[in-house]
Amino acid sequence: MKKFNFTIQGSQYEVEILNLEGNTAHLEVNGTFYDVEISELVQTTKTPTLIRSVVKPPKESKANVSQGLTSVTAPLPGNIIQVLKQVGDKVALGDLVLMYEAMKMENKVLAEAEGTIKSMKVIVGDAVLQGDVLFEIE
């Protein structure tokens, strides 16, 4: 079937697999015949498992604040897929306001201040660039 050459601790071995029946292999090693039982190997995956930690709402707002108005901007370019709050809705720090797709991932945009949504600058389907204002909180 298949031939292999092995060097083990300086000694050369010519191994030929003659036949496989179930979990028994019939081998010839340097002219000597052997029946070898093959145990089943447990395959382990080489792909690591990704476990994400829970993201806590920001303690301090990184939004642009001027005259009591907080502007929340897009951290990455993407497309708006869901708007959960509208103009006039009250929000608390960390409330989910909208979701958008960026780099093939859904991202949540949270309220970065407590107050009322003064203006919503985007609608579902809009494409935004990094730094574009998404909504304003008063």
Q: How does the helix and strand content classify structurally?
A: mainly beta
Overall number of strands: 13
* Low-confidence blocks of residues: none
Query: Which band does the percent of strand residues land in?
Result: over 45%
State the major sheet: 5 strands, antiparallel
Supply the number of helical segments. 0
The CATH topology of the largest domain corresponds to OB fold (Dihydrolipoamide Acetyltransferase, E2P)
Q: Give the end-to-end Cα distance, rounded to a whole number of Å.
A: 77 Å
> What proportion of the residues is helical, as a percent range?
under 10%
| Rg (CA only) | 31 Å
CATH class call of the largest domain: Mainly Beta
The CATH architecture of the largest domain can be given as: Beta Barrel
Q: Give the mean pLDDT.
A: 85
CATH fourth-tier homologous superfamily of the largest domain: RNA polymerase II/Efflux pump adaptor protein, barrel-sandwich hybrid domain
Question: Could you give the order of the helices and strands?
Answer: EEEEEEEEEEEEE
Can you tell me the number of structural domains?
A: 2
Strand order of the largest sheet: 5-6-13-11-8
Identify the overall geometry.
rod-shaped
